[in-house]
Amino acid sequence: MFPKKRMRRLRRTEKIRAMLKETTISKNDLIYPIFVEEGIEGRRAIEAMPNQYRLALGEVRDEAREIVSLGILAVILFGIPQKKDAAGSQAYAKDGVIPRAIGEIKDEVGDDLVVITDVCMCEYTDHGHCGVVEGEKVLNDPTLKLLAREALSHASAGADIVAPSDMMDGRVGTIRETLDKEGFEDMIIMSYAAKYASSFYGPFRDAADSVPSFGDRRGYQMDPANANEAMQEVYLDIEEGADIVMVKPALSYLDLIYRVKQEFAMPTAAYNVSGEYAMVKAAAKKGYVDEERIVMEIMTSIKRAGADLILTYHAKDVARWLG
Ligand code: PBG
After folding, report:
1. Statement: residue 1 has pLDDT above 80
2. Ligand 1 lining (C-beta closer than 6 Å)
3. Is the previous residue joined to 142 through a cis bond, with omega within 30 degrees of 0?
4. Active site includes 195?
5. Residue 3 pLDDT more than 90?
6. How far is it, in rounded angstroms, from Cα 234 to Cα 223?
7. Cα-Cα-Cα-Cα dihedral sign, residues 162, 163, 165, 170
8. pLDDT-derived band at 304, boundaries 50, 70, 90
């Protein structure tokens, strides 16, 4: 071929490169995670996640307005209750921290912001596991009822999308059935379909006070070594009625994002998790990397792999950089 074919012709100028860009990031792709804590005033910094905070309920309206003004379309809410118990009862309390936060946001900005809620037990249980515990075992089926109640309490409070992140078997089906029975047949389910037992969640567990008091999550979250198993997980969630499927974390699992998109052609989300954020922030602070360029490269790689949506703590910065 050489010298007839010269790849560099198409890289010659800024404008030509822009015309031929295959992957672009838009504000529409971004979902910003926020932590809401009951019983505090103001906002509390999360040490390993610079610029991320636990917000008091009284802070949520200002936060929602800022996010809307940046042009971000969606948030995902995580709740930290004032009191935790073995059954995680604040997870499905009608006046729990998340239903109240949804109320604040919807009162303030209405439908200008799509409100997604994380549906899980680990922030609400005193043992920190994602389900009902008996001895050292996390029980699958008894947990399903509680997750369905939690999803229903979020739906009743006005959430737009519920996002189960627990990795119990059958939870998408149980939640779908409960929502439909209660008249929420239009409620969207975004399932954390392929969620790995990952060390990249380290900073999140401090952010949400959800460190398991014994054992770990490997009995329900996936082994990082497994890819075929992830495809089965995603398949099952789709069969049970998931509308959007998620791969989590993002960067060490780009192969899964790619395979899931290729195989199922579903709306696909990827969670650029707390540890991924913390590494970038730490390196940028030291001056080892250029933060804006590295974050945009990360966003691009997640989209190029096949994600339609990116849950990311960088969302506000990305929105600002996009202008
Ligand atoms: C709750 C949940 C976790 C994250 C999202 N939902 C923690 C976990 O499973 O241990 C992690 C998010 C992040 O690290 O940014 N189950």
Report:
1. no
2. 118, 120, 122, 130, 165, 201, 204-205, 217, 273-274
3. no
4. yes
5. no
6. 15
7. positive
8. very high
The yes-or-no answer on residue 248 being catalytic is yes
Ligand 1, atom 10: closest residue by C-alpha: 201
Q: What are phi and psi of 43, to 5 degrees?
A: -135, 145
Separation of 272 CA from ligand 1 center, angstroms?
Answer: 11
- Provide DSSP, 30-47: EEEEEEEETT--SEEE-T
- Per mean pLDDT, which range of 74-83, 158-167, 204-213, 248-257 is the poorest? 204-213
Query: Would the pTM count as exceeding 0.90?
Result: yes
Per-residue CA distances from 214 to 85, 119, 173, 303 (Å): 15, 21, 29, 36
What digits encode the pLDDT tens for the residues 199-258?
A: 999 999 888 888 899 999 999 999 999 999 999 999 999 999 999 999 999 999 999 999
Give the CA radius of gyration of the chain: 20
- Find where tokens 């202008």 sit: 323
Ligand 1 atom closest to the CA of 273, numbered from 1:
15
Beta partners for residue 116, in sequence order: 76, 161
β-strands 137-139, 132-134 pairing: antiparallel
pLDDT digits (tens, 9 = 90+) for 168-193: 999 999 999 999 999 999 999 999 99
Specify the 3-state DSSP secondary structure of 262.
Answer: helix
What is the SS3 assignment for 84-99?
CECCCHHHCCCCCHHH
Close Cβ partners of 167 (under 8 Å, ≥ 6 residues apart): 130, 192, 195, 217, 220, 221, 222
Burial of 233 (0-12, 13-18, 19+ CB in 10 A): buried
Atom 8 of ligand 1, residue of closest alpha carbon: 201
Q: State the Cα–Cα distance between residues 244 and 262, nearest whole angstrom.
A: 14
